[in-house]
Structures are given as structure tokens and as C-alpha cells.
């Protein structure tokens, strides 16, 4: 079989010409991929990293060897060496929302090309990709997010290359795929057309639906800020005359909330809308600031009421003295 394939590649095949080009027919390419691992969605850079097996299938009648050699059936296949890949035509697929990518080549290039006797070709490669994902953080961290894979042909228009999802399992994921901070709810697929000044190109979309797990934020954000607010309320039970204690406690809680809010904001992108976490932090800061302002009002009221209290006490003392004198005169008269 090796000799047959080598002879086909050397004598009857030109990898610079796509299948069907001679008859002006479009080449149909079937695609699927498998997700091996995935990073958390990064809010600051609006992207995520994923490791996938990308697979493409197409029919290449020029390399069919079943008819010419009756010893082989349709299911017989030959796995080509990675050194032979450059001799074959491969679809010019690219990922539109890719920000960065890596081909794996340890120990050898992580690529597979398998030729069936009928002429169908399976091409697979392992990729690590950093993909852009526009996150909507309005309800952060109680949000759901949607990210996409968008595949398209780079140079061949719809008249030359048609890209379709495979009929069964176009997108797969390893069992119990773990995405830090998120849960992968569902994956859907669809078709699109990429229009540009150079023509219309076939494209595919895979949409990933995520739900954020809020446990981390409950422990690291909500609970500490709630405790700081409760701590600021302790000043209500401290005597109004204990000025250093109440002022120190009020300033401490205000500074703590300000620092916590600033540290958290530094980890978030500078978006133009208000996030749910911003409302929570602002509310907590308002409560602790209100507790500090409350003591200022209480202190003013206490200082204003002291002269009146002293006057009342002085009047009571004088009245008591008069009553004592009257009582003494009454006793003497008896």
C-alpha cells in the first residue's frame, strides 16, 4: 500500500490544485473538533484559551486506489507520514476570532492524515488557541456568558470551497470538562457567510454557553464586605463620649471598604456600564460611610444638648436647696 500511495503522489497528483477544480466543482469540507481542556474566561483581556483536536474530511478522487487495485476495499486506509503532508492539498481553514495559536510538535508534529481507498481524507491536528470572547459583565458575578468558535475559508470563496459540520457530534468535549470558575452548559452549531471586499466565504459557528460559579465571590468578596458593614454598626453601641473609639472604627471600616473595592476594580476591565458587583460595593461603602456620618450628627447633638442639660440640673439643684430650707424652717417652728 505504501508503494501505491507513493506512486499516486508522484505520478498522478498535483497538490497545488484543489479537488474538483478541473471540473469547476466546489470542494466540500466536513469539520468537527474536540475540546480537551479550557481555561477560565478572562475578563480583563476578553478571551480564553482552549486546547482542541481539529478534524477535517474531504473527498479527493485523484488519490482513490480502490478501483485501480481490486485487493483493497472502501474501508482500507493508509496513514501518511507528516513529511508527505506538503504534497497534498489541505483546506485553508482559519479561525476568525483567534488572537493567538500554537501548533504542537512534541515529539513529532501532532498531525494526522489518513487516506481511505475510496479517496476520502481525514486530517486532524492538535491546537492550542487563544480566542476572543466579548463578555457582557452587566450582571457580574451572577452572569452567564456566550463564546464562539468561528471557522472560515481564507482564500476560497463559496464557489470553490463549502464548509459543513459533520452530521454526528460536530463538537465534542472530554467527559467532565472542568472550566475554572464556570460551568459549560451547552454547545450549539450553526452556519454563516463571511462577506468581505474579496468575496463571500463559507463559515461555521460553534457557540459555547457558560454559567459562572459564584462560590468564589461569595467567600472572597461578598462575605468580607458584609462583615465590614456589620462591623461598622458596632459603633452604634459605643458610648457617644468615646470619641477615639468611634472615630477610629468608622475610619477603619471606610478605608477597608475603599481598599477592597479598589483592589477588585483593578482586576476588571474598564467598561462603560455599571456591573452588579459595582452596585454591591457602592452599597457597602455607603453603609459604612453612613455609620461614620451618623456619629458626627450624634456628636453635634450631644454637644448642643449639654448646656441645656446643665441648666436643667442647675435649676433642679436650686429647687432642691429651696425645698430643704423650707423644710428646715418648718421643723424649727415646731
UniProtKB/TrEMBL annotation:
List where the protein spans the membrane: 216-238, 279-302
Please report the stretch or stretches of sequence annotated as the Ig-like domain. 109-203
How is this protein situated with respect to the membrane?
Multi-pass membrane protein
One Pfam family, please name it: Neur_chan_LBD
Claim: Transmembrane is one of the keywords in the record: yes
Into which family does the record put it?
Belongs to the ligand-gated ion channel (TC 1.A.9) family.
- Protein name in UniProt: DgyrCDS3581
